[in-house]
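Board notes (copied after class):
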Amino acid sequence: MKWKGLHTGSVECLDRLWEAGYAAYPVGGCVRDLLLGREPGDVDICTAAHPEIVLSLFENAVPTGLKHGTVTVLTATGNVEVTTFRREEGYADSRHPDAVTFDADLKEDLSRRDFTVNAMALGPDGEVIDYFGGREDLKNRLIRCVGDPDRRFSEDALRMLRAVRFCAQLGFTVEPETAAALRRNAPLTEKVSRERIRVEMEKTLLSASPQAVGEMISAGLLRHLYDFPAEVDLSGLQELPSTTEKRWRGFCEATGFPISTLPVERKLRREVEHPELAVIPTLALTPADLMALGFQGPQISAAQKKLSLYVLLHPEGNTKERLRELL
């Protein structure tokens, strides 16, 4: 069988499943990326094989989500998530299904997915299986929910943040009916863990269009986290280096958002809250220079902090002469 564009490990998984008599298809983001001419990242496979069958077929298989039918197969070229065709029922917490059954076919499995561009599968001979117009939406650069957008967002509120993130990463826009439903259901994001919110915000900030995080603010998706100003200018984010600390710092400076609201590593929090610390090693006046000027012990640290705050605002002033004047 030929599965063009996928890494060797995922092809071997697909072939093994078909050889054992179980239909299996690459699905979701990897299919979307192939159609966009992008190299797929993670490969997800959906299959008619139940989880226990998948575990028996692969020696290096880990039961990462048996409740939801997911087994992760470890391969030399990357991990592959293999999930049984499933039907979901009830979403009391607006995040996870209350019940999952493995009596669905491919079409029903695809029908429960978030967006049309993520609801396509790839057949063994390269044919694209597209029941919901995903290829047309890719062509028109649209993010559209599969089926009723209010239902999709009430099932899993994280999908609203993902919609904005996909737009930022792919240069797409949210289809009007989906956008209207997103705003109607925005309060549901309060049920999403702050860790997942941080991940989606960070992926957006690190994209080619980091200012798109403003769409999360204007749509009300982050209202429960912070009382953002009515007017926020995030246009400067695109000019910053695409690093986690610089983009987060730029966002927090532009909005007043306290990074401590989200679960972030201590190092990142320190870099965002105290940007002057990164300037200290670059100061034109070294600790030896400060000692020669008569500073000692804690006086050196205090002088470095004050000088770094100045240089942060006036980088052109980072010369020995100017810093001596300031001292």
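Comment from the instructor: The first strand starts at residue 24 and ends at 27. Residues 229 and 255 are 7 Å apart (CA to CA).
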